[in-house]
Amino acid sequence: MTKKPRTLSNVVNDSEQLGHLARMLQQQQSLLDQIRQLLPKPLQQHCIHARISGARLVLHTDSPVWGTRLRFHAPQILQAARRQAPNLNKLDIRIFLPDSIRPDRKPLGSLPEKTAALLRQLADSIDDQAIRAALKRLSGTPDN
User: Fold this and answer.
1) Which CATH number does the domain housing residue 16 bear?
2) Does residue 55 share a domain with residue 84?
3) Domain containing 126: what range?
4) Element (H, E) at 51
5) 20 burial class (0-12, 13-18, 19+ CB within 10 angstroms)?
6) 90-95 and 56-61 strand pairing
């Protein structure tokens, strides 16, 4: 006899940890919906996530401009959120930029080739062995 496949929602709700995560997400979505109702129309779509962390309400928005606009509504947002969590005393606004918008960043510790070449050249002109070795390490050249 073959078993009937279980729905994903049944699997999630039956698993203790997954069920807990699902309940947390539902609470966060409910909080976000409640907060969005307080905000003017253009700002509603830019408030993208809400969560409670200890005595802080953390709101995520999609740009610094909308974050600033959210701060103007902080008193009424906190007042409404206290219905769900009476111990809230601070509002944090975080900016969440999608990967497609974030500027490309070079990994820390890598020097442009021209700078590395100048450091190697400087190291070769130094008599002090410790300083020479340090400059070679900075340039990315093994000390020979």
Assistant:
1) 3.30.300
2) yes
3) 107-144
4) strand 47-53
5) exposed
6) parallel
- For residue 6, the 8-state DSSP code is P
Residue 47's Cβ-count burial label (10 Å; 0-12, 13-18, 19+) is buried
Angle, helices 74-81/64-71, rounded to nearest 10 degrees: 70
Residue 23 is predicted with a pLDDT of 86
Low-confidence ranges of the chain (pLDDT < 50): none
Residues 21 and 84 in one domain: yes
Nearest to 43 by CA among 55, 59, 29: 59
Among 69, 66, 29, residue whose Cα is nearest residue 51: 29
Structural domain count, the chain: 2
pLDDT of residue 108: 58
pLDDT on residue 36? 93
The answer to the question of residue 101 being in a domain is no
